[in-house]
Amino acid sequence: xxxxxxxxxxxxxxxxxxxxxxxxxxxxxxxxxxxxxxxxxxxxxxxxxxxxxxxxxxxxxxxxxxxxxxxxxxxxxxxxxxxxxxxxxxxxxxxxxxxxxxxxxxxxxxxxxxxxxxxxxxxxxxxxxxxxxxxxxxxxxxxxxxxxxxxxxxxxxxxxxxxxxxxxxxxxxxxxxxxxxxxxxxxxxxxxxxxxxxxxxxxxxxxxxxxxxxxxxxxxxx
Length: 222
Known about the structure:
alpha+beta, Arc Repressor Mutant, subunit A, 3 domains, four-stranded antiparallel beta sheet, four-stranded mixed beta sheet, rod-shaped, membrane, WH-like_DNA-bd_sf, Sig_transdc_resp-reg_C-effctor
Protein backbone atom coordinates (compact mmCIF):
# COMPACT_ATOMS: atom_id res chain seq x y z
CA UNK A 1 0.00 0.00 0.00
CA UNK A 2 0.96 3.63 -0.41
CA UNK A 3 2.90 5.03 2.57
CA UNK A 4 0.68 6.57 5.23
CA UNK A 5 2.75 9.72 5.53
CA UNK A 6 2.79 11.86 2.40
CA UNK A 7 5.51 14.46 1.91
CA UNK A 8 4.46 18.06 1.47
CA UNK A 9 5.62 19.30 -1.92
CA UNK A 10 5.35 22.34 -4.18
CA UNK A 11 6.31 21.51 -7.76
CA UNK A 12 6.25 24.03 -10.64
CA UNK A 13 4.80 22.55 -13.85
CA UNK A 14 4.99 25.12 -16.64
CA UNK A 15 2.60 27.86 -15.58
CA UNK A 16 0.98 25.57 -13.00
CA UNK A 17 2.02 24.61 -9.51
CA UNK A 18 1.35 21.32 -7.76
CA UNK A 19 0.93 21.73 -4.01
CA UNK A 20 0.45 18.86 -1.59
CA UNK A 21 0.16 18.64 2.16
CA UNK A 22 -1.02 15.95 4.56
CA UNK A 23 -4.55 17.29 4.29
CA UNK A 24 -4.82 17.23 0.49
CA UNK A 25 -3.48 18.33 -2.87
CA UNK A 26 -4.30 21.00 -5.44
CA UNK A 27 -3.25 22.30 -8.83
CA UNK A 28 -2.87 26.08 -9.14
CA UNK A 29 -3.06 27.30 -12.73
CA UNK A 30 -1.28 30.26 -14.23
CA UNK A 31 -4.47 32.36 -14.02
CA UNK A 32 -4.60 31.81 -10.26
CA UNK A 33 -7.46 29.30 -10.23
CA UNK A 34 -6.94 26.19 -8.11
CA UNK A 35 -8.41 22.70 -8.49
CA UNK A 36 -8.41 20.03 -5.81
CA UNK A 37 -7.01 16.65 -6.77
CA UNK A 38 -6.60 13.40 -4.87
CA UNK A 39 -3.41 12.35 -3.13
CA UNK A 40 -2.84 9.46 -5.60
CA UNK A 41 -3.33 11.87 -8.52
CA UNK A 42 -0.73 14.20 -7.02
CA UNK A 43 1.69 11.27 -6.67
CA UNK A 44 1.18 10.34 -10.34
CA UNK A 45 1.72 13.91 -11.51
CA UNK A 46 4.78 14.36 -9.30
CA UNK A 47 6.32 11.18 -10.72
CA UNK A 48 5.68 12.26 -14.31
CA UNK A 49 7.25 15.66 -13.64
CA UNK A 50 10.41 14.03 -12.34
CA UNK A 51 10.97 12.63 -15.85
CA UNK A 52 9.54 15.31 -18.18
CA UNK A 53 9.20 14.02 -21.74
CA UNK A 54 10.17 10.47 -20.75
CA UNK A 55 7.80 7.52 -20.63
CA UNK A 56 6.92 6.28 -17.14
CA UNK A 57 5.54 2.74 -17.12
CA UNK A 58 2.08 2.11 -15.69
CA UNK A 59 3.27 -0.21 -12.94
CA UNK A 60 5.62 2.46 -11.63
CA UNK A 61 2.83 5.06 -11.56
CA UNK A 62 0.51 2.63 -9.75
CA UNK A 63 3.21 1.80 -7.20
CA UNK A 64 3.88 5.52 -6.66
CA UNK A 65 0.20 6.38 -6.17
CA UNK A 66 -1.34 3.37 -4.40
CA UNK A 67 1.58 1.21 -3.37
CA UNK A 68 0.15 -1.93 -4.98
CA UNK A 69 -1.96 -2.87 -8.01
CA UNK A 70 -3.88 -5.44 -5.96
CA UNK A 71 -5.89 -2.86 -4.01
CA UNK A 72 -7.21 -0.92 -7.01
CA UNK A 73 -9.40 -1.63 -10.00
CA UNK A 74 -8.19 -1.85 -13.60
CA UNK A 75 -9.51 1.64 -14.39
CA UNK A 76 -8.07 3.49 -11.39
CA UNK A 77 -4.98 4.71 -13.23
CA UNK A 78 -6.80 5.76 -16.46
CA UNK A 79 -9.42 7.63 -14.41
CA UNK A 80 -6.73 9.48 -12.43
CA UNK A 81 -4.94 10.39 -15.67
CA UNK A 82 -8.20 11.67 -17.18
CA UNK A 83 -8.89 13.87 -14.14
CA UNK A 84 -5.40 15.36 -14.35
CA UNK A 85 -5.74 16.00 -18.09
CA UNK A 86 -8.94 18.00 -17.61
CA UNK A 87 -7.11 20.48 -15.39
CA UNK A 88 -3.69 20.56 -17.04
CA UNK A 89 -5.00 21.06 -20.57
CA UNK A 90 -6.32 24.47 -19.50
CA UNK A 91 -2.67 25.58 -19.45
CA UNK A 92 -1.80 23.49 -22.53
CA UNK A 93 0.00 20.81 -20.52
CA UNK A 94 -0.66 17.31 -21.79
CA UNK A 95 -0.31 13.78 -20.44
CA UNK A 96 0.22 11.51 -23.43
CA UNK A 97 -0.55 7.80 -23.54
CA UNK A 98 2.19 5.59 -24.95
CA UNK A 99 0.49 2.31 -25.97
CA UNK A 100 1.60 -0.79 -24.05
CA UNK A 101 4.18 1.25 -22.13
CA UNK A 102 2.82 4.01 -19.97
CA UNK A 103 2.45 7.80 -19.93
CA UNK A 104 4.60 10.85 -20.41
CA UNK A 105 3.96 14.51 -19.64
CA UNK A 106 4.42 17.21 -22.26
CA UNK A 107 5.07 20.71 -20.93
CA UNK A 108 5.17 23.41 -23.63
CA UNK A 109 8.56 25.09 -23.74
CA UNK A 110 7.07 28.43 -24.69
CA UNK A 111 5.65 28.82 -21.20
CA UNK A 112 9.08 29.01 -19.62
CA UNK A 113 10.68 30.64 -22.67
CA UNK A 114 8.25 33.55 -22.56
CA UNK A 115 8.97 34.08 -18.87
CA UNK A 116 12.72 34.02 -19.44
CA UNK A 117 12.42 36.32 -22.45
CA UNK A 118 10.37 38.83 -20.49
CA UNK A 119 12.81 38.63 -17.61
CA UNK A 120 15.81 39.11 -19.90
CA UNK A 121 14.11 42.02 -21.63
CA UNK A 122 13.43 43.66 -18.30
CA UNK A 123 16.98 43.19 -17.06
CA UNK A 124 19.04 43.48 -20.24
CA UNK A 125 17.10 46.06 -22.26
CA UNK A 126 16.13 49.07 -20.14
CA UNK A 127 13.54 51.40 -21.59
CA UNK A 128 14.34 54.85 -22.96
CA UNK A 129 12.87 56.40 -19.83
CA UNK A 130 15.21 54.33 -17.65
CA UNK A 131 18.22 55.26 -19.80
CA UNK A 132 17.35 58.96 -19.72
CA UNK A 133 16.86 58.83 -15.97
CA UNK A 134 20.21 57.07 -15.53
CA UNK A 135 22.03 59.62 -17.72
CA UNK A 136 20.39 62.53 -15.90
CA UNK A 137 21.29 61.03 -12.52
CA UNK A 138 24.91 60.51 -13.65
CA UNK A 139 25.25 64.08 -14.94
CA UNK A 140 23.75 65.52 -11.76
CA UNK A 141 26.09 63.36 -9.66
CA UNK A 142 29.13 64.65 -11.60
CA UNK A 143 28.01 68.25 -11.17
CA UNK A 144 27.42 67.71 -7.49
CA UNK A 145 30.89 66.18 -7.04
CA UNK A 146 32.51 69.13 -8.88
CA UNK A 147 30.66 71.60 -6.68
CA UNK A 148 31.79 69.77 -3.57
CA UNK A 149 35.39 69.76 -4.82
CA UNK A 150 35.52 73.50 -5.60
CA UNK A 151 33.70 74.31 -2.37
CA UNK A 152 36.27 72.29 -0.42
CA UNK A 153 39.15 74.14 -2.13
CA UNK A 154 37.51 77.48 -1.41
CA UNK A 155 36.99 76.62 2.27
CA UNK A 156 40.64 75.57 2.58
CA UNK A 157 41.82 78.92 1.19
CA UNK A 158 39.47 80.79 3.51
CA UNK A 159 40.75 78.86 6.53
CA UNK A 160 44.39 79.49 5.57
CA UNK A 161 43.65 83.17 5.02
CA UNK A 162 41.97 83.49 8.42
CA UNK A 163 44.74 81.59 10.21
CA UNK A 164 47.40 83.73 8.52
CA UNK A 165 45.87 87.02 9.65
CA UNK A 166 45.08 85.60 13.06
CA UNK A 167 48.76 84.73 13.41
CA UNK A 168 49.84 88.20 12.27
CA UNK A 169 47.53 89.82 14.79
CA UNK A 170 49.48 88.16 17.58
CA UNK A 171 52.95 89.13 16.26
CA UNK A 172 54.69 91.99 18.07
CA UNK A 173 57.91 93.55 16.85
CA UNK A 174 60.66 94.72 19.13
CA UNK A 175 63.47 97.02 18.02
CA UNK A 176 66.85 97.44 19.65
CA UNK A 177 68.80 100.61 19.10
CA UNK A 178 72.35 100.30 17.79
CA UNK A 179 75.07 102.94 17.73
CA UNK A 180 73.91 103.83 14.27
CA UNK A 181 70.54 102.38 13.34
CA UNK A 182 68.48 99.63 14.91
CA UNK A 183 67.71 95.92 14.70
CA UNK A 184 64.11 94.68 14.83
CA UNK A 185 62.83 91.20 15.60
CA UNK A 186 59.67 89.37 16.56
CA UNK A 187 58.97 89.47 20.25
CA UNK A 188 60.68 86.52 21.91
CA UNK A 189 62.92 85.79 18.91
CA UNK A 190 65.94 87.70 20.18
CA UNK A 191 69.11 87.89 18.06
CA UNK A 192 72.38 86.64 19.57
CA UNK A 193 74.57 89.44 20.91
CA UNK A 194 77.46 88.34 18.71
CA UNK A 195 75.43 89.20 15.60
CA UNK A 196 74.62 92.72 16.76
CA UNK A 197 78.08 93.60 18.02
CA UNK A 198 79.63 96.51 16.14
CA UNK A 199 76.75 96.56 13.65
CA UNK A 200 75.62 99.80 12.02
CA UNK A 201 72.50 100.33 9.95
CA UNK A 202 69.01 98.92 10.10
CA UNK A 203 68.41 95.16 10.34
CA UNK A 204 65.66 92.61 10.76
CA UNK A 205 66.35 89.34 12.55
CA UNK A 206 64.51 86.04 12.73
CA UNK A 207 65.72 82.60 13.70
CA UNK A 208 64.69 81.20 10.34
CA UNK A 209 66.16 83.85 8.03
CA UNK A 210 68.95 85.17 10.19
CA UNK A 211 70.06 88.80 10.15
CA UNK A 212 68.82 90.75 7.12
CA UNK A 213 70.03 94.27 6.39
CA UNK A 214 67.32 96.69 5.29
CA UNK A 215 68.19 98.90 2.32
CA UNK A 216 67.16 102.51 1.88
CA UNK A 217 63.94 101.66 -0.01
CA UNK A 218 62.74 99.35 2.75
CA UNK A 219 63.58 102.00 5.32
CA UNK A 220 61.61 104.56 3.36
CA UNK A 221 58.61 102.19 3.21
CA UNK A 222 58.83 101.65 6.94
